[in-house]
Amino acid sequence: AECNLLCFPFAGGYAEYYLALFHKLHRCALYPIQLPGRSFRSHELPFTNMERLIDILTSILLPIISQQQPYIVFGHSM
User: Fold this and answer.
1) Nearest CA to 33 among 3, 72, 78, 70?
2) Has residue 17 got a pLDDT over 90?
3) Using CA atoms, how far apart are residues 72 and 49, in angstroms rounded to an integer?
4) Are the C-beta atoms of 28 and 39 separated by less than 8 Å?
5) Which are the contacts of 71, defined by CB distance < 8 A and separation ≥ 6?
6) What is the DSSP letter of 29?
7) What is the C-alpha to C-alpha distance for residues 7 and 73, in angstroms, rounded to an integer?
8) Which of 9, 52, 76, 78 has its CA 20 to 30 A from that of 17?
9) Is 77 a catalytic residue?
10) pTM
11) Sheet-wide strand order for 71-75
């Protein structure tokens, strides 16, 4: 892949929303982010502490964004 695309779902959304992009993107690796409390992770409690969420996301995403390829962060709401 020439780049990494990190996709954050919209408020109340889910990561599967971005899977349609997977078939259209041939040069980017797609990383849809699924937060606890949504979709297949609905059995998990959602985060109530933003600092804890940032810590966990950082530990997961840092290896991806530290690669040689450029990365794109995509997310929207309303």
Assistant:
1) 72
2) no
3) 25
4) no
5) 3, 4, 5, 6, 64, 65
6) E
7) 6
8) 52
9) yes
10) 0.79
11) 28-32, 3-8, 71-75
